[in-house]
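Dear colleagues,

For the upcoming journal club I promised to circulate an example of a predicted protein-ligand complex. I picked one with adenosine monophosphate because it came up in last month's discussion. The inputs are reproduced below in full, followed by the predicted structure.
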Amino acid sequence: MKNIVLFGPPGAGKGTQAVLLKDKYNLVHISTGDVFRFNIKNETELGKLAKSYIDNGDLVPDEVTIDMLKAEVNSNPDAEGFIFDGFPRTESQAISLDAFLNEKNESINGMVALEVPEDLLVERILNRGKTSGRADDQDVEKIKNRFQEYETKTSILKEYYQNQNKYFGIDGVGSIEEITSRLEKVFDNL
Ligand code: AMP
């Protein structure tokens, strides 16, 4: 199986690229943000629990997020592999993911990270906010909080995967097509 963590700060283009890459490599795309938003829209218990965290730009607690991720993976038993988009976002999530895959005799092939400077990220998120309807895309304070969460809890995962020789950084500035082809060069070898 090809199990890839698509990594990068909010607004880096993970979702856009994952949708393009999942078809080419026949992988199941799991975006934890999308799963949360689906649950919020459908007013499930999970959605009610996650809503205030997401609206404020805070991370949803690990236990809830990890259980949800496992359920998503388990509901795709025939998958040839996964693109994890927006997960893991904390060290505890990364450790749980490794243990969970290990139980299935699987592992993460690589973390592929989209590297984009912060000023460009804010611009992209505010632009997306015009059409996404996402409260967390429309308010500069909430966007700043998401970066803060990323800096303090998520960015250390670069080191986590580097220590396993699984980190691949990609320049995330350019046209969608340019970035896809940079990603493909890495995906082909994972
Ligand atoms: P995203 O769509 O990836 O930008 O995620 C939107 C929001 O969903 C984040 O700001 C968090 O509130 C929540 N979220 C998504 N993935 C995770 C995760 N792995 N851990 C905790 N919270 C998450």
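Two points we might discuss: Residues 118-132 form the longest helix (15 residues). The domain at 2-181 is CATH 3.40.50.300 (Rossmann fold).

See you all on Thursday,
B. R.
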